[in-house]
Amino acid sequence: MPEDTDGPYVVGASGHRLCVGSAGERAQELVRAGGTSASSRRLRDAVLALAPWDVVVHIGADDGETVVGADARTISFGSNSRVLLFLRRSMKVSEGSIDLREVALGAKEGEARFVVDTVVVPCRTLDAGPTPGPDYSACVKIDVEGAEFDVLAGARSLTAGSRAWAIIIEVLHMDPFEKARLATDYTMRVMDRRTGDLVVVPPASPQRVAELLDSAWLHSQDAVLTARDAA
């Protein structure tokens, strides 16, 4: 793993250097893969190509794979002090321009207890901003380890708007009922590993949705959500 004065790094899909910790499962995965997995990178690129996004938002800041090098105004929300340290280093070595907001996002304004650092942090909603305006088009990545539905609840103005939006959300850890809920409330797509196409997951019973997402030909770690009438 290469090192410089800012610490260890890998080269991400964007070609930018991403600083990572030398210990921990996440860091080790990044080192082994040379960044995020090939399937995750293909999905990210497919969603970024869906529209000329006004803003790219990452909720649950990581090392920068999602946001460093994005061709749009970029906002990153995060409250894990250790991860934010590496993101700042990624921004520095890649000369990236990211609007970094050190707050948690959830269903309402207030405070939230962040388990990793065992501290209380400010909590905001995505609808509260900062945003370019009420009609902006947004590509959003949510990576919040189980708090996804809280973040979605705080983004109702965004998802009810008339402009284009898309949300990349990790669903691998969700139970079948949560996955079926997403397929009902939104147009939900997952990526065909063979072609890179985004395939609609139709509204169905939790068992049927789970069976579909278990298909080996699908990248079922993440799903893409768009407006219900966008299928």
From TrEMBL:
Methyltransferase FkbM domain ranges (all copies): 106-179
Protein name, as recorded: Methyltransferase FkbM domain-containing protein
InterPro entries: FkbM_mtfrase (IPR006342), SAM-dependent_MTases_sf (IPR029063)
Domain of life: Bacteria
